[in-house]
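Reviewer has doubts. Consider these tokens.
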Amino acid sequence: MCDPIRNRRTEILSDDWAVLTRHTFEYRRRDGRWESQVRQTYDRGDGAAILPFDPARGTVLLVRQFRLPAYVTGHPEPLIEACAGLLDRDDPETCIRKETEEEMGYRLGGVRRVFDIYMSPGSVTERLSLFVAAYSEADRLNAGGGDAAEGEDIEVLEPTLEEALAMVADGRIIDAKTVILLQHLKLHGLTPA
């Protein structure tokens, strides 16, 4: 298959917390014609997310935290989400183990990678690795809450899977990665790794 892009030029528009780049290029359409296009990409690195579940009690662990992008688009309440973080220099499994301890206060045994997905491929380069893992009260190290030095103020929630799915249905959970992981658990059952 030939490369669908030619004559690509890039210009860094911003390089602060993330990199915003303008790409000017020619794209080969399905009919073979070349078309000039301009797009922007937002790159803050790849990430990982996890949904721990307790198969004995039918519960899941979620976090609630303030998200500025949701706030500025009219959603002032903190979002209810699966635990997640940027990879930085770690592999996805190492990242998500660290994030689970930091944000939720749990040390998990066997984690299971279920998907690698793009959440918003029209402009964001981030690919998320999604995980699930069984947990129990014996895995709890502390109350969690995140890293205050990073500005994190995280509340840990422990609803049943059915309660969490009801939160999706009534609009209390609107985070895509969380909806995907909850639906995955519903489809595949709460079973240990």
About this structure: The mean pLDDT is 93. The first helix runs from residue 68 to 72. Residues 47-188 form a domain with the Nucleoside Triphosphate Pyrophosphohydrolase fold (CATH 3.90.79.10).
